[in-house]
C-alpha cells in the first residue's frame, strides 16, 4: 500500500469555526426568537467597488474576442499589475521595490503557506501567539513543527502577545535564533500594530542573526495612524531579511475573486547546505513557474483598477466603513468597562474576557445574554486564552445594536 505524508496526520482537526457554528446553531434551536448578531465574520461583506467590476466586465469581453484574448499569462503576473503595485504601493511611499520583485498570486493564504517550499525542512520557526493558523499548520505539513504538546508544537517558538506586553512580541533573549519569523501587522486576530521603531527591532534582529522575516500585511489598507509602517521595507535593511505578503482580499473585497502578491527582494539571500548563497527571488520564481500558472487575467484586471483614482477613492470608502464599525465597537466596549485592544488600524477588536473568564465561557455568556457571537481567542493559540475577537465586517446598524446590548448586559 502506498504511504502518505505523515505530517498531515499530525494536524489536529480544525475545530474553532465548526465549534462556533455548532454552539450558535444549538442556541438558535433553543431560542428561535433570538436575533443573533454574528460578529465573528472574517470575510468582507460589502460588494466589490464599481471600478473593479467595470474592469473585470471589460476583461471578460477581452476574453471573448480573438484580438484581445488572453490565455496563459506570465506566472509572475501581468506587467500592467506588477507595475501598478510597484508604483502605488511602494514608489509613491518612497520604498524601493521593483516590479520584478513582485509576484502576483491568487492570494496571501496560498503564498504564506507555499513559501516554505523553498526553505529548509529543518528551519526553526517563530510565530506570534495568538496567530493566523495558516503559518503554524503549513509548517506542521512541512515537518518543521515537531511534536504537538499541551503548550503547542515542540519545535515552534511562540512569541506571546497580550495586554501584559502591550501586544509587542519580545525578541528571544535565551539565545534562541529562529530561522523563520512570521509577523502579521496589522495583526489578525488582535487588530494591533507595531510602530516603526518596534518593527525595526525585528529587522535588526533578523539581520544580526541571519533570520528571514515572513511579513504578512494583508490588512495594510486599514492603517490610518502615521507611525504604523505600511510595509516592512520602510525599515532600513528589510530588503535583505524580509519577504512581504499582500492581499487584495481585505483591501478591495477580493475574497471571492482571488488576487494577492508577494514581494521577494533581489537582495534577499539564503544559503544552501554547502553554505553557498542563493537568491530567494530566483528560487521563488522557479517554484512559481513550476507549480503555478498565474492569477486569472480577469482578477488581475480587477486588481489593477483599484489603483486608478476612482478605484482608490472607492476602496477607501469601503475600508472607512469597516473602520467606522471598528471604532463603534472599540469605543462602545470601552464605555461598557471592557478591556479592548486593536480596532484602530484593523478590522479586528480584541477583548479581554471579564472577571477571569475563559474565552469559551465569555463566548457562551455573550451569546446567551446579548445574542452576539464572536470568536474565542483561545482558538488562535495558547496566549489567546482569556481573550475574544469581534470583527468590523457586519453592518453599522448591527454593530451599533451589538454594542448597545453589551453595554446593557453590564459585564
Ligand atoms: N493573512 C491573514 C493574516 C489573513 O487574516 C487572511 C485572511 O483572513 C489571509 C492572509 C488570507 O488572504 P487571502 O484571501 O489573500 O488568501
Describe the protein in words:
It is a single chain. By secondary structure, this protein is an alpha/beta fold. A seven-stranded mixed β-sheet has the order 2-10-9-8-7-3-6, with helices on both faces. The protein has a four-stranded antiparallel β-sheet with strand order 13-14-17-16. A two-stranded parallel ribbon has the order 1-15. Helix 3 runs antiparallel to helix 10, helix 5 runs parallel beside helix 6 and helix 11 packs parallel to helix 13. The longest helix is centred in the C-terminal third of the chain and has 27 residues. Pyridoxal-5'-phosphate binds next to helix 5.
Give the structure's gist in a few sentences.
The chain is an alpha/beta fold and 411 residues long.
Structural class: alpha/beta
Bound compounds, please?
Answer: pyridoxal-5'-phosphate
SSE string, helices as H and strands as E: HHEHHEHEHEEEEHEEHEEEHHHEEHEEEH
Calculate the terminal CA-CA distance, rounded to whole Å.
Answer: 57 Å
Strand order of the largest sheet: 2-10-9-8-7-3-6
* Biggest sheet character: 7 strands, mixed
What is the strand content? 15-25%
The best one-word shape is globular
What is the average of the pLDDT values?
Answer: 96
**How many individual helices?**
13
Whole-angstrom Rg = 22 Å
List keywords for this structure.
4-stranded antiparallel beta sheet, 411 residues, 7-stranded mixed beta sheet, single chain, globular, binds pyridoxal-5'-phosphate
Amino acid at each position: 500500500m502506498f504511504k502518505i505524508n505523515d505530517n498531515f496526520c499530525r494536524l489536529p482537526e480544525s475545530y474553532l469555526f465548526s465549534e462556533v457554528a455548532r454552539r450558535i446553531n444549538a442556541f438558535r434551536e433553543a431560542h428561535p426568537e433570538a436575533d443573533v448578531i454574528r460578529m465573528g465574520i472574517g470575510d468582507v461583506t460589502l460588494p466589490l467597488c464599481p471600478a473593479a467590476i467595470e474592469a473585470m466586465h471589460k476583461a471578460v469581453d477581452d476574453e471573448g474576442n480573438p484580438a484581445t484574448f488572453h490565455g496563459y499569462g506570465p506566472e509572475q503576473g501581468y506587467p500592467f499589475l506588477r507595475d501598478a503595485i510597484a508604483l502605488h504601493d511602494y514608489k509613491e511611499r518612497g520604498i524601493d521595490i521593483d516590479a520584478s520583485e513582485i509576484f502576483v498570486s491568487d492570494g496571501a493564504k496560498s503564498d504564506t503557506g507555499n513559501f516554505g517550499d523553498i526553505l529548509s525542512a529543518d528551519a526553526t520557526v517563530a510565530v506570534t501567539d495568538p496567530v493566523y493558523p495558516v503559518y503554524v499548520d503549513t509548517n506542521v505539513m512541512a515537518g518543521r513543527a515537531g511534536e504537538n504538546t499541551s503548550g503547542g508544537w515542540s519545535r515552534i517558538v511562540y512569541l506571546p502577545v497580550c495586554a501584559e506586553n502591550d501586544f509587542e512580541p519580545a525578541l528571544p533573549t535565551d539565545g534562541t535564533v529562529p530561522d523563520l519569523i512570521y509577523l502579521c501587522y496589522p495583526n489578525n486576530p488582535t487588530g494591533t500594530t507595531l510602530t516603526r521603531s518596534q518593527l525595526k527591532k525585528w529587522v535588526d534582529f533578523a539581520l544580526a542573526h541571519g533570520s528571514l522575516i515572513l511579513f504578512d500585511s494583508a490588512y495594510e489598507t486599514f492603517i490610518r495612524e502615521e507611525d504604523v509602517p505600511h510595509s516592512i521595507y520602510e525599515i532600513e535593511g528589510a530588503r535583505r531579511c524580509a519577504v512581504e505578503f499582500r492581499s487584495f482580499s481585505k483591501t478591495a473585497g477580493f475574497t471571492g475573486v482571488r488576487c494577492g502578491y508577494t514581494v521577494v527582494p533581489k537582495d534577499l539571500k539564503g544559503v544552501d547546505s554547502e553554505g553557498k548563497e542563493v537568491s530567494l527571488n530566483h528560487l521563488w520564481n522557479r517554484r512559481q513557474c513550476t507549480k503555478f500558472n498565474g492569477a486569472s487575467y480577469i482578477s488581475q484586471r480587477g486588481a489593477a483598477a483599484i489603483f486608478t483614482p476612482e478605484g482608490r477613492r472607492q476602496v477607501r470608502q469601503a475600508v472607512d466603513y469597516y473602520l467606522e464599525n471598528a471604532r463603534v465597537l472599540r469605543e462602545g466596549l470601552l464605555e461598557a468597562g471592557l478591556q479592548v485592544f486593536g480596532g484602530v488600524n484593523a478590522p479586528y477588536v480584541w477583548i479581554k474576557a471579564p472577571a477571569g473568564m475563559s474565552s469559551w465561557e465569555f463566548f457562551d455568556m455573550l451569546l446567551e445574554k446579548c445574542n452576539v457571537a464572536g470568536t474565542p481567542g483561545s482558538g488562535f493559540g495558547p496566549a489567546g486564552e482569556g481573550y475574544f475577537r469581534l470583527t468590523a465586517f457586519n453592518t453599522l446598524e448591527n454593530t451599533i445594536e451589538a454594542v448597545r446590548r453589551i453595554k446593557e448586559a453590564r459585564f
